[in-house]
Specification:
heterodimer; A: alpha+beta; two-stranded antiparallel sheet; 2 helices; 2 strands; 45% helix; B: mainly alpha; Amino acid/polyamine transporter I; 19 helices
Chain lengths: 74, 441
């Protein structure tokens, strides 16, 4: 989006569609490697693993329950 | 960027050799309006596509079982939707990449593969429910599923293979705007507008009090309003549209408009469901309610609900399939753009077509256990949503990647961590209710 002004004519604005505009230099992870293990990142990933294990255990129980294995054990 | 007179001469000289792209406008407000219109799209589409067939069913069930009592939940969900999707749009603009690619790059292959596999699985199962809704609604209108389902799948494929993102976007925005008809339907069923206003502002307890069925319907409303594929879709869509840093404010407005429109449409669906509640109509899916409408509210209401169900499923299918194709293409390093022709991005289009085609084929299998598919969607969504949203939040606190300009502000973090904790708890509760129903009996 450019603003074009000249002293002999009125100011006008040029509006360019994002797809037609010059590409920008975006934030890139090139050369950065994996995310830094800050305490927040470590805690979040640990909690996420715990959550997924819990969900996995529930899913396993549900499958065993549907298969009738749970009733045979208890 | 403001240009001096000498620079203007340079611009003029350049235009003599190459055509200057864009549109010239005289005033600042025209510039703002035009820029917004150029940026507008991904926010509306992601939000409105979220009002897919499953959402129509959930919102109408909410109205059908509890009348106007759950309308307030939508007001609570509006800011949640906005804050989550704003983060996605910001990350997409800052990096120019999709969510799946960012998870792979910053959290490694294990988390990347887990997220991708779970996303593809839950998306595919959701697509089956979309085609089941198309089949159900069009059957009620007298169209054989062996015709309606393949024709829909073909139409959904043709929608994306035009080689132009903008063409796809314009067609999908038109489909989104068809959802305005929900407001006409809500008007036709003559709700008590004073009671509606009261129910929106003041949460009131339904006659039976707090029951497990009520709690899980509320969780289902939250689950249907914030779906995992939305995070992947909007980020890839923003990257596909090549939104610039300066477009962020317009992308935010687009997201806010989309969230508001979606919540209003969801409210209209609840009002239509409430009509069934008032007339004692019991129904298991919206198609049944629509058929019962025929004798009570006329053919407009009946056919309107059925056709809007199809529209919701079509919107959901194109967005969800694209979320899968973009994510898979990004991770595989394939060309993954709607700007490309079919033969220029074969892997990307093959993924989209495979998702649509396989889901349509599964629906045509006789005695397909749809209930099992719906339960699986809830379980796998419970796995992917919390993880995708955690990665999103961590990426938006990644100073190394984003610098100070794009990372979350402290107030962003307070709000987003609260949303994440609530979503974790609700996802866990919903999955527990599905997998361990005896716990809640």
């Amino acid at each position: 989006m450019a603003t074009i002004q000249n002293s002999y004519g009125p100011e006008y604005f040029r509006v360019i569609h994002p797809l037609d505009d010059v590409p920008e230099q975006k934030c890139t992870s090139e050369g950065l490697g994996p995310i830094a293990m800050t305490p927040t990142v470590r805690t979040s990933l640990t909690l996420l693993r715990a959550y997924l294990i819990l969900m996995g255990a529930m899913l396993l129980y549900h499958v065993l329950d549907l298969a009738g294995v749970v009733h045979r054990i208890f | 960027m403001r240009l001096a007179e000498t620079q203007l001469n340079a611009v003029v000289a350049r235009t003599e050799t190459a055509p200057l792209k864009g549109v010239s406008v005289r005033s600042s407000w025209q510039k703002h309006v035009l820029t917004f219109l150029m940026v507008f799209g991904p926010g509306l589409i992601v939000m409105e596509a979220d009002n897919d067939a499953g959402a129509v069913s959930t919102y109408m069930q909410a109205g059908g079982q509890y009348g106007l009592h759950l309308l307030w939940t939508l007001i609570v969900l509006l800011p949640i939707c906005y804050f989550v999707q704003e983060m996605v749009a910001r990350l997409g603009i800052a990096t120019g990449k999709g969510h799946a690619a960012m998870i792979y790059e910053r959290f490694g292959k294990w988390w990347g593969r887990f997220s991708l596999f779970d996303l593809l699985l839950v998306n595919f199962l959701t697509l089956i429910t979309e085609f089941a809704a198309i089949s159900l609604a069009l059957r009620a209108l007298g169209v054989n599923p062996w015709i309606s389902v393949p024709v829909s799948a073909l139409g959904l494929t043709l929608l994306v293979v035009t080689g132009s993102y903008l063409r796809w976007e314009r067609m999908v925005i038109a489909l989104c705007l068809m959802d305005l008809t929900w407001f006409a339907l809500a008007y036709v069923v003559h709700p008590d507008w004073t009671a509606v206003g009261r129910a929106i502002i003041i949460p009131a307890m339904p006659a039976g009090g707090i029951t497990s069925s009520l709690i899980f319907l509320v969780i289902a409303i939250v689950g249907t309003t914030i779906a995992p594929w939305q995070l992947f879709f909007q980020q890839s869509c923003v990257a596909e549209k090549r939104l610039r840093f300066t477009d962020l404010k317009w992308a935010r407005l687009d997201t806010l408009i989309g969230a508001t429109f979606t919540v209003l449409v969801a409210g209209a669906m609840m009002l239509v469901g409430n009509y069934g509640y008032q007339h004692g109509i019991t129904f298991e899916d919206p198609a049944q309610l629509a058929v019962a409408f025929g004798s009570l509210a006329g053919h407009f209401a009946r056919n309107g609900v059925l056709l809007l169900m199809v529209n919701a499923a079509v919107l959901g299918t194109t967005a969800i399939s694209l979320a899968s194709a973009w994510a898979y293409g990004e991770v595989k390093g394939w060309e993954h753009s709607l700007h490309k022709k079919l033969w220029e991005a074969p892997g990307f289009y093959a993924t989209y077509i495979a998702c649509v085609g396989a889901a349509a084929a599964v629906v045509l299998i006789p005695h397909m256990p749809l209930q099992l598919v719906i339960i699986s969607v809830q379980v796998f969504a419970g796995l992917i949503l919390p993880s995708a949203i955690i990665f999103l939040q961590l990426l938006l606190n990644d100073h190394e990647l984003l610098g100070d300009r794009w990372v979350n502000r402290p107030w962003n973090n307070y709000i987003n961590w609260t949303i994440i904790v609530v979503l974790f708890a609700l996802s866990l509760l919903l999955a527990a209710q599905v997998m361990l129903p005896n716990l809640f009996a």
